[in-house]
Amino acid sequence: MSAIAGRATAGRASGGAEPGAGQTSVRFYGGLREIGASKILVSTARARVLLDIGLPMGEGSELFGGVVHERPGRELSDRLRVNQAPGIPGLWDPALLPEQSPLRARDPRPTALFISHAHLDHIGMAGLVDPGIAQWASGETVRLSRASVFAGYHYLGREPQLQAIDSTVQVGDLRVEAVPVDHDVPGACGFIVHAPDGVLAYTGDLNFHRHGGRNSLAFAQRVHGASMLVTETTMLSFEPLATGPVRTEDDVLSIAGQACARTPGLALVSVYERDVERCSALIGAARRWGRTMVWPGAVAAFLAAMGVEGVVTWDRTRPQTALQCAGLDAALAAGLTVQTVGLSEVASDPGGYLVQLDARDMPAMLDLPVEPGAPWIHAQGEPLGPFMPDWAPFQAWLSALGLVRVDAGSTGHATAGDLTDFVAHSGAGVVVPLHGRHPERLRRPGPILLPEYGRAYALDGSVLGR
Ligand SMILES: [Zn+2]
Ligand SMILES: [Zn+2]
C-alpha cells in the first residue's frame, strides 16, 4: 500500500468527530517520517487548536515542486486530493474549496491556529486557512512574515493575518502558551497546550547549541512532566547520527573568512535570509575581511525590513529577476536604508566583494567576475541541499564555472545526542517523535508513540479511533 493510499481518503472530511466530554484528542497530519509539514490538531468537545500548518519540503514536495506548478485557484483543492492538506472541516478558506466540499461545513467549536516559527514547513499553508480563524505567532514571527511579503514572497492563498501572542491564548477550554526556543530564525517558539485532562508540549523546531541553547533549555524545564511531548527529530534522519559538538556561529564565520582570505578575487555565498542573525553577522564580518556583502534585491529588501543595518544590493546595471527588482523598488519606495553597487564597481575590484547568489537565476553568475577556483560558501542558503530539486543544476553551474563549494553550515536542529538527553529528562508521559524521516531512532526509557496520519490519540498516547 502506498503512503498516500494508506492515509485518510483524499478530500474527505476527517478529524470532525467530537471527543467525549473531558477528553482531549490529538491528531497528526504531517511530519510523519518526513522533515517538515507539521500539523497537529488538538481537540476537545469545546475547542480546537491547530499547531503549525506546514508545507511538505524536500523529498515530500515533488508533487508541487521543481518543474511542477500549482494550478492558480486550485492550490488547496488539488492538495486535498493528494493528501498534502488535511481534510479538517471548517479549517480551510471556503472560497478555495469546491461548492460541494464537506470541508466547507463550519465547526461550532472555536478554532485557532498557532505557528511555531516562520519556516515554510510550519507556516507555508497558513494563507489557505479560513480568514475567520484566529492565527497566532510570536511577535518576531509576525514581523518576519510581514517583511517577507513586503519583499515579494507570496504565500499560497492570501497573506496570513497573524496576531502576536503576548504569553497565553485561551481557546474554549484549551489554553495555549508560547515559549521561546533556539532555532535558526527569529521568534521561534514551542507551545504548551493546557487541556482539561492534561498538558501537551510541542517543540516546533529547536536546538540546544545556538546561544548555548538557553531558550531551549528553559523550554525543556518549562515542559517537564507534560502528559504528551511532541518533539522534532530532524537530525535523526541522517546517518551517522551527530552527537558531538556543532559548529558555532563563530565557526561558520571563521570558515567563510578563511575561504575569502584564500581568494584574491570575488567570493560567493549562500545563506538563508530568514536566519537574520547570521546574515547580519556576515555583513559585519565581510566588512572586517575588506569585502562588501552584496545581496539580491528582494533579500536586501527583506533584511532591511527586518532592521538589519549595512544592507547592500545591486543597482540597475546588473540584470536581476523581476522578483529581485521589485524587492529593491519596494525597499527604496518605503525609504529603507539600502545601498546599491554596480557591476562595473565589482568588476574593477572583485576581491572587495562577497556576493549572495540567486539560486533561481543561475545563468546570472555569468555576469560576475568570477575566476575558476573562487569559493561558493554554502551556509544553509538556497539551494538548501541535495534533497532539493535545484541542487543538481546549481552544482552543474558551479562546476561549469570552476567554482569550489565550501561547506560552512551549522544546523538549526538539535543533534541526536541533545534530543536523547532532552527526552530522557523530560518526565513526559508519552513522547511523540515528529518532523524527521526516522522517528523510530528516538530512544527513551518511557513510552514513545509513532502516530498514524489522521488517527485520534488521547494525551496518554492511547488510540481513540479515526
Ligand atoms: Zn521544520
Ligand atoms: Zn524550522
From TrEMBL:
Residues 36-255 form the Metallo-beta-lactamase domain. SMART domains: Lactamase_B. Residues 1-23 are annotated as: Disordered. Pfam families: Lactamase_B_2. Residues 1-12 have a biased composition (Low complexity). GO terms for molecular function: exonuclease activity; RNA binding. Keywords: Exonuclease, Hydrolase, Nuclease, RNA-binding. This is Ribonuclease J.
